[in-house]
Amino acid sequence: MNMKVAEKDVLVHCHHVTCAYGDVAVVNDVNFTLRRGEFAGIVGPSGSGKTTLLKAVLGSIAPVHGSIDMLKGLRMGYVPQVESVDWNFPVTVLEVIVMTRSEKKWWPRITAAERAAAEDVLERLGLGGLSGRHIRELSGGQQQRVFVARALFHSPDILVLDEPTSGVDVRTRHEVLHLLADLHDAGMSVLLTTHDLNGLAAHLPRLICLNKEIVADGSPREVLVPDVLEKLYGAPMHVLEHGGMPVVLDHSENPMVGRFGGKAV
Amino acid sequence: MHSSLMYALNLGEPYGFQFFRNGTFVALIAGGLCGLLGVFVVLRGMSYIGHGLSHAVFGGAAASAVMNFNYFIGAGIWGVVSGVLIGRIARRRIIGADAAIGVVTTASFALGLALLNRYGQAKRSIEAVLFGSVLGVKNSDIIAVLVVAVLATVVIVLGYRKFLFSTFDPEVAEVSGVKVSFMEAALMVMLSLTILVTMRVIGTLLISALLVIPAATARMLTNRFSRMLWISPLIGASSAFLGMNVAYHTNTSASAMIILVGASAFTCVYFGSGVRGRRRMASFGHL
Fold this sequence. Notes:
The complex is a heterodimer.
Chain A: H1 2-9, E1 10-21, E2 24-35, E3 39-43, H2 50-58, E4 65-70, E5 76-79, H3 93-98, H4 112-124, H5 140-153, E6 158-162, H6 170-185, E7 189-194, E8 206-211, E9 213-218, H7 220-223, H8 226-233, E10 238-242, E11 245-249
Parallel strand pairs in A: 3-7, 3-8, 5-6, 6-7
Antiparallel strand pairs in A: 1-2, 1-4, 8-9, 10-11
Chain B: H1 2-12, H2 18-43, H3 47-66, H4 71-91, H5 97-119, H6 123-131, H7 139-158, H8 160-168, H9 170-175, H10 180-202, H11 207-221, H12 225-250, H13 254-272, H14 274-281
Helix pairs in contact in B: 2-7, 2-10, 2-11, 2-12, 3-4, 3-5, 3-10, 3-11, 4-5, 4-10, 6-10, 7-10, 11-12, 11-13, 11-14, 12-13
């Protein structure tokens, strides 16, 4: 009985997953399970295989070894990096939102029902009244939210985001973080990648630390510790505590000290 | 009064010739068709692919002419195969993919040229394929361009959402269940067929201009993909119609005039649409 409930609860299960480009393994022997209602971040330095692992979960890269099991009929809402979007492309907010329901639609016109549903999602994300705008005419935070809205319009079981705070300013980062926390509170499962330890990772309930292999998996308090961080980044790091949250300092070997007549910060 | 009547008669004069009526009709449809597919060429940054593909199709046309094979079947197979291959090479975004495409398509072009030199009947046929010829328009050309135009319109209307999604955001489209590689192959096949049926009128060398100019002009006029899809064919068709008439009265090459009319429209819009239009153009860094 208990087993059955647990099975139904598992959205994604990676079983000894290895991904490679050519002969070079980028992700090696990764195991993790993601359950419904979880809010997890894959953290690691650049080149650690975060994005590759995310793409394997999304199904756009096939693992060379191991398997990824999904809940039957799992719907994923994917939010790509803001930097990968062509902001000059001639589309309005409404057209972007409705895109995700295009796989079985033969009629080009957006129907009244689709428009109403899209306006509803936009309203929920604080983007009411912007549906007719060109995507370029939005602020950074609004642009990010439009792509979250598009993913939500697909009625996903899980929201998957690639580096949601990369290339955005501090204000937008806060907006994104609050938005994701609100969605999680409302029952949405979230999986994201980030290299932003203090700005994003430290706020998440669960962190999967990846450097080709999984180095640690747990809450920020458990994994944002000098031991794990040294394994992750290959350099010693300090961890302080501020307001009950770990804060990672990476200036243990500050190359600027003494260069401009200044002292260590 | 009298002289303006004379002038009006004179404007209608070329329509007394069967070859001009046929040529104008084919050019009109060809301009619209190139405008329609040009939207994807411009928004995907594939202008060099359109250029390369027309050169590749030329090789196929020459080979089928030399082997006494039906032009549409011979050059059609050659064009569709090279179109799909070029699409696949470009999609992988390998470093040097553009160079590889350049080598293959110009080699195909060179092969066609050599074959025609060695086995072709006259210099005239080479010129006709390179620069286009309205005189050579046959009934089969009219049927072919009509069939491809209807086919492309139906496919683009029915696949509108999937084409839009996979053009704007191929990665997310794939994850959302759109068969992106299939959509891309469909686009390359339509592009090859378009080049195939319009090449004999517009010519190998100038066809890529007709794929780029109307769509780039339309992009400056609107911020909507759906509007681009009718504005661009409209510009393409009007350029073709005007170009044909100007060419008759000035006794110049029809394809050259079609492109010049299109380029003039582009220039007017570029300066007329002000900063806003030019900023929209900024997205085509590769043109």
